[in-house]
Amino acid sequence: MVIIRRAFFIIIGLFPLFTYSQNTINLIDLYKAVDINNPLAKIPSGIDSIYQLKSSNIRTSYLPKLDLNASATWQSEVTSINLPSTLPFSIPETDKDQYKVSFDVSQLIWDGGTTRAREKMEDLNKVLEQNKVNIEIYNVKDRITNLYFNLLLIKVTEDQLYLMSNELDKRIAELESGVKAGYILSSTLDVIKAEKLKILQNIDAIPTQRKSLISSLKSLTGIPLNDNDTYLIPNPDTLNSLNCLRPEYNGFRMQQDALTASSNLIARKRYPVLAGFASAGYGKPGLNMMSNEWNTYYMFGAKLSWNIWDWNSVHKEKQQLKLQANTVGLRERSYLDSYQAQVDGILLEIQKLKNQLSKDKEIVQLLHKVSETSASSLKNGSITSSVYISDFDSESRAQLEMEIRRIRLSLQRVMLYNLTGNELK
């Protein structure tokens, strides 16, 4: 009985605890609920809206820019022409206070592909942000998996404890008759009753654990769950391919694409920029700097801007990106090594559990025979209660271990699906 009690508490601690009509619940439905109800599932639409606004702002580079400018200045010296006094005319000196109001228009003609490169960069950043959300959702599903299988383990433990309790009730009824008849000691009956009470203690601890797990599942999935719901054991098919489809792995490729796009954008800094412009205004003076009169004016033209020397700034920035790309590559290799190790570990665990389960049924049958013989001997008073309890515990423990292995085998298969990034069906 001590072994059973220890097994009970070990089962409860196998997975982390994060934590009314009867319904049938399966793990796939909980996964789907996360994709719909969890707050993380609402983030991608917000990311789309953010990057639509960013792209819209970038595309305004193709549109004309309109500016209204005004200035009022006073200068210490102005342009003047000194003519000989013998001439019959003179040129008036320009006023030192000057005023100007203008309406200026500029239009990008060619920017070397900078705007398109910025748009592509933002598209890749959007994909990266959405991939981060996918990683977070996968982490939530991993937590749900742990909670779900912990519920399954608690259920099989509870069922086994009730079977043990019912079996001890039969022994108690038999021993009570023997005690009355005088050929069974009352102490023998008391030992069995004490073991029954210990089992009931373990049963009493289960509802609290179950409520905690269900509460955590409800908060993560957003669907109503009850204490008396039935939770099905998943039975996923064998995977045909173990290639990694996890968003963490896809993220490495996305990071490389983003670094390539960033390098392309940086290179555009060395490209010439051609723009057209026009300006119309009213000022004193206008374009005639020798006049002191208020006049309207206008001008239009084109201008070219080209950074022909940047002290190797662009080259150094591109070198930094190459080093970052190398770092991403190393992290990708490390991730794949860890991934393969985890896959191999799960496959070995699956094979081990299959081998153990192939022998469990026979073990349970043999121990059941031993337990039945002990029960008969106990009824006849030919063995002590401690001998019977030992045989009874051995059978119960074997039965419980078999059920636990069935659930652990299912868990390992589900973990393989989640680890590889395949959708559970």
Kindly summarize this structure in a few lines:
This protein is of the alpha+beta class and 425 residues long. Helices cover 63% and strands 12% of the residues.
Give the arrangement of secondary structure elements:
Blueprint: H1 2-12, E1 24-25, H2 27-37, H3 43-59, E2 65-74, E3 97-110, H4 114-181, H5 186-221, E4 230-231, H6 247-267, E5 273-284, E6 295-305, H7 313-380, H8 385-420
Parallel strand pairs: 1-4
Antiparallel strand pairs: 2-3, 3-5, 5-6
Helix pairs in contact: 1-8, 2-4, 3-4, 4-5, 4-6, 4-7, 4-8, 6-7, 7-8
Please explain how this structure is put together.
The structure is a single chain. With 425 residues, this protein is α+β, with helices and mostly antiparallel strands. 63% of the residues lie in helices and 12% in strands. The chain contains 8 helices and 6 strands, in the order αβααββααβαββαα. The strands form 2 sheets. It has a 4-stranded antiparallel beta sheet, with no helix packed on it. The chain has a two-stranded parallel ribbon with strand order 1-4. The chain is rod-shaped.
Main attributes?
425 residues; alpha+beta; 4-stranded antiparallel β-sheet; 8 helices; 6 strands; 63% helix
Radius of gyration equals 41 Å
Instruction: Summarize the main sheet.
Output: 4 strands, antiparallel
Count of individual beta strands: 6
How many angstroms does the end-to-end distance come to?
40 Å
> How would you state the average pLDDT, rounded?
90
pLDDT < 50 runs, ≥5 residues = 1-20
Tally of helical runs:
8
How much β-strand is present in the residues?
5-15%
SSE sequence, one letter per element: HEHHEEHHEHEEHH
Strand arrangement across the biggest beta sheet:
2-3-5-6
**Secondary structural class:** alpha+beta
Q: Which term fits the overall shape?
A: rod-shaped
* Percent range of helical residues: 55-70%
